[in-house]
Specification:
The chain is α+β, with helices and mostly antiparallel strands and 422 residues long. It is built from 15 helices and twelve strands. Helix 3 packs antiparallel against helix 5.
């Protein structure tokens, strides 16, 4: 097992209750003493609470509830989401990271979380990993007033587990898990979904094998895990031993190509079939753009429709193509067929469209006697040109005329950041 271990000094930094902490900082308030939530009241009581302050989190309030589920709290501040502001603060904090490490040793995991490989820098700064982590957290606090926590490990996995399992509960917000700590700190963890990388569905499948703790997973026969779950089973086994061979500077930043691309909308009013066709066409345009950006094509299209709350229900169906495609025309035709086959003539409130089973775009195609290849090439060139214009001048720079109809939503959504106005 030792031959699979790499020894680095990895920091995993988490910005505590980031959106809520930014709102507190903007008001000159202490996030650990302020009852504040981030939610858009203008969207009604069903609006999702995006974040709660560390003060409320310490009292057990979840950060992903609906506005109408928030208890009556004296002095509660409801801050409207300001996504542009959060991105600006996040950029400033990335600047702090880059003042300590080179770009190739930094991996931005999300807007509020990052990995830093400080292995090459400890001798330079003449510091231990913990001391350097303390200085970085203090600098973030000093420059932005945002509190942060940090996990330290011999690899990315252990640093993330140290953050999730220990740092957030440790005074000072810094904790570590090294290889020699795995049996003590990691193996007793239960339920399994507390382990980074194990979701609720995988947890149930592992429980069916009488695997309840991470230690049970570490002691299970790796051959049986691989036979049952494939390469994921083998990876879980090694993760249970704290082993992860990812190194930031060796290309982690690029990340894997996603297994699917798509988007969903909860509409602000009920739609009929005619109106939903306009929305569906706009969504197909976005899916096609994402596929071209990834240089991938889809083998399958998946459409989900949710009816108005007064009726409930809906449907979720998929269709496979004879050949992979990134063509909006083909994606829309397939989605339209699915809709017409399963729609029950009821008011629609939710729609989701997703392209799945992605494969790399083919460098050449089988020639056709009927000219389809040339036509497809022209459509793809047109799509690439429109994508370039949107990247340079914004999403609203090139839009279908149908998006200016009352049913269209793309025009309004083009001005949103993370689903919000700012």
């Amino acid at each position: 097992m030792d031959e699979y271990k790499i020894y680095r000094d990895i920091l995993c930094v988490d910005l505590k209750s980031f959106y809520a902490s930014v709102e507190c900082a903007e008001r000159g308030l202490d996030p650990f003493k302020t009852p504040l939530i981030v939610a858009d009241k203008s969207r009604g009581q069903g609006s999702i609470v995006l974040a709660v302050s560390p003060f409320l989190k310490a009292k057990g309030m979840p950060s992903r509830c609906r506005l109408h589920e928030v208890p009556n709290i004296k002095g509660l501040i409801v801050a409207r989401p300001r996504m542009r502001k959060y991105l600006e603060v996040s950029r400033d904090i990335v600047g702090v990271y880059l003042s300590y490490v080179a770009p190739e040793d930094l991996h931005i995991y999300s807007v509020d979380e990052a990995f830093l490989d400080v292995t090459p820098y400890l001798n330079y700064y003449n510091m231990s990993a913990r001391a350097l982590a303390r200085e970085i957290l203090d600098t973030i606090q000093e420059k932005t007033a945002i509190p942060a926590a940090c996990g330290i490990g011999d690899n990315l996995l252990l640093s993330k587990l140290a953050l999730d399992l220990k740092s957030k509960k440790t005074p000072g917000g810094i904790a570590s898990i090294r290889y020699e700590d795995v049996e003590r700190d990691l193996w007793p963890v239960t339920p399994l979904s507390e382990m980074w990388g194990i979701g609720a569905r995988m947890e149930k499948r592992l429980n069916a094998l009488n695997i309840w703790k991470v230690g049970d997973l570490a002691r299970f026969d790796v051959r049986k895990l691989k036979k049952r779950f494939g390469i994921i089973g083998e990876e879980l086994f090694y993760h249970a031993h704290g082993i992860d061979q990812s190194i930031i500077a060796e290309g982690l930043r690029a990340g894997p190509v996603p297994k699917s691309v798509g988007l969903g909308q909860t509409l602000f009013r009920d739609y009929d079939a005619e109106g939903i066709f306009t929305v569906m066409l706009e969504m197909v345009d976005e899916v096609g753009e994402k596929l071209r950006f990834l240089r991938h094509e889809a083998k399958t299209i998946h459409l989900s429709i949710g009816y108005s709350k007064a009726y409930g229900g809906g449907f979720s169906r998929q269709m496979s193509f004879l050949e992979p495609t990134d063509s909006e025309e083909e994606l829309f035709d397939a989605a339209l067929r699915l809709f017409r086959q399963h729609y029950e003539d009821l008011p629609i409130r939710r729609i989701s469209l997703r392209a799945t089973n992605l494969v790399p775009r083919r460098p050449f195609e089988q020639l056709s006697f009927f000219g389809e290849s040339a036509q497809k090439k022209r459509r793809r060139n047109l799509g690439d040109a429109i994508d370039a214009l949107r990247r340079r001048y914004g999403k609203a720079s090139v839009m279908r005329l149908s998006s200016y109809l009352e049913a269209g939503t793309a025009k309004d959504r083009s001005g949103l950041i993370g689903g919000h106005r700012e």
